[in-house]
Design a protein that fits this description.
Elements lengths: L19 H6 L22 E9 L6 H20 L6 E9 L4 H12 L4 E6 L3 H13 L4 E3 L6 H4 L14 E3 L4 H14 L4 E6 L3 H16 L3 E7 L8 H10 L3 E5 L2 H13 L6 E3 L6 H7 L7 E5 L9 H10 L10 H18 L10 H9 L3 E3 L2 E3 L12 E7 L2 E8 L3
Length: 414
């Protein structure tokens, strides 16, 4: 996403969207400041405490994804404590609600950075929120591992295509990026003999970057972008934009944005006579999308990072362990990536906390150790390149069939 919303999106397995009121109550022992109260700590293994923070939307439209991220981190931490992975230390989770908005995200990062026990953060979901969190955590030398940010500028700078530069050495991510995801979708459409598209994005970091990457590849490989339109994130009526697009007669519409807007966009397209597929990035990959898009959603498509979880060697183990804990929310699109992100931090802590007197003093050593991570995770091999990006760049195209997302193709960018 997910730049999703004000910063990215994202999902993977069985995301169930809950109403905001349920999302709030689902946060368990979180206090009014949005913290988890150390949930998911398990049995513990010592008298010293280290905290792994979580920054994600725990309320609002994207709460299903955010809560899936939180609980997946809690699972990883519980397993580490139960196995006494770090002798002498007990790990705890502190989850903060960023509401998928930049200012709450910055506040959450500031709160975590002020806690001397925090040794790492899993988050954020949105790319735009990541932009506000990065400098706060970097100044405190706290490693940040995102399970869902896909905008390439977060790791390789504003001119990532021509002059990549890593601005924040504490930043890592377990998912692939939009400059891979957008072109992957472009190649897939051309393989299906779809050679003309219109594009729409929601003016946010995630959506704009995704559309730019898609359009560049689509045109380079012989496709034609017949219209390039934008909408406002809070719009609900897209008739003006669709009127312009319909006149161009595209074979498909490529959308950069999240499912809460993408579903109605698809529905209004079809109702207005533009009966072509809507395709987007991982921000659309949510079961709720088909409910919002209506009965005409069949044939719509999305790309999402990674392979279907149930097809991966450790995927079923993760899902079974998650189910055993009886969390109040499914892991969602990014739960497995959050689990791997948490374990990347935990693997780093095995080195950095071994002889550490306190948690705060181990932060830089944790960053250094995470950069050398190399282990088999739930989503595949977990390791990072010189920019902190995942070396695993697998993607899947999903298509709506009979009202549900079905995997159509899994592979890597050619």
């Amino acid at each position: 996403m997910s730049s999703r919303t004000s910063s990215r999106t994202v999902a993977r397995v069985g995301v169930t969207l809950v109403a905001a009121s349920l999302a709030l109550s689902a946060c368990g022992s979180r206090d009014s400041g949005g913290t988890s109260g150390g949930s998911g700590s398990g049995g513990g293994s010592g008298d010293k405490t280290a905290v792994i923070g979580v920054i994600a939307p725990l309320s609002g439209d994207l709460s299903a994804m955010g809560l899936g991220i939180q609980h997946s981190v809690e699972l990883a931490v519980k397993q580490a404590n139960d196995s006494k992975a770090i002798p002498g230390w007990t790990l705890k989770v502190e989850a903060k609600d960023d509401e998928a908005k930049t200012e709450p995200a910055k506040n959450a990062a500031t709160q975590l950075a002020s806690d001397n026990n925090v040794v790492g953060v899993v988050g954020t979901l949105n790319s735009s929120t990541a932009q506000t969190v990065q400098p706060v955590l970097a100044s405190a030398k706290i490693p940040m591992v995102s399970p869902a940010n896909t905008n390439p500028s977060l790791s390789r700078g504003a001119d990532f295509a021509n002059s990549p530069k890593r601005d924040y050495t504490n930043y890592f991510r377990t998912c692939t990026t939009d400059d891979v995801q957008g072109p992957f979708a472009a190649q897939y459409l051309l393989e299906k003999n779809i050679k003309s598209v219109a594009t729409v994005h929601d003016k946010k970091t995630y959506g704009q970057g995704l559309v730019e990457a898609f359009s560049k590849e689509f045109a380079a490989k012989g496709g034609q972008v017949v219209a390039a339109e934008t909408i406002n994130p809070d719009d609900s009526n897209y008739q003006n934009v669709l009127s312009t697009i319909t006149g161009k007669k595209p074979q498909a519409v490529y959308y950069g944005g999240e499912y809460p807007q993408g579903g109605p966009l698809s529905q209004q397209m079809k109702a207005g006579g533009l009966n072509v597929p809507l395709i987007g990035g991982d921000g659309l990959y949510n079961p709720k999308y088909t409910e919002l898009a209506g009965a005409t959603a069949n044939g719509d498509m999305t790309t999402s990072v990674g392979a279907p979880l149930e097809s991966l060697p450790k995927g079923k183990e993760f899902l079974e362990a998650y189910k055993t804990e009886k969390y109040d929310q499914e892991p969602g699109a990014y739960g497995a990536y959050a689990y791997d992100a948490a374990n990347a931090i935990i693997e780093g802590l095995k080195t950095s906390l071994k002889d550490a007197a306190d948690a705060q003093g181990a932060r830089q050593a944790t960053i250094d150790a995470i950069g050398k991570a190399d282990f088999d995770g739930v989503t595949g091999k977990v390791s990072f390149d010189q920019y902190g990006d995942s070396k695993t760049r697998v993607l899947t195209v999903y298509e709506v069939k009979d009202g549900a997302w079905v995997a159509a193709k899994t592979g890597e960018l050619k």
